[in-house]
What does this fold into?
Amino acid sequence: VTRRGETVCQFSQPPRKQPYERIVFGSLPNRHESLPSPEDNKIIISVPSAIHSHKPPLIG
It folds into this structure.
């Protein structure tokens, strides 16, 4: 993904495997701490792991 959010290669047509995953953010109601919502139009990216099917940690 470029700095402008453009892909650098073609993706396979669905339903084939895609090089991205969806992420869902959630929180418990009535928490004492109020966490900010993720910003709109932002992308979270990571470097692929060398271990097959290993998901990298999301560190913010």
Notes: The chain is about 0% helix and 0% strand. The radius of gyration is 15 Å. Residues 1-28 form one domain. The mean pLDDT is 76.
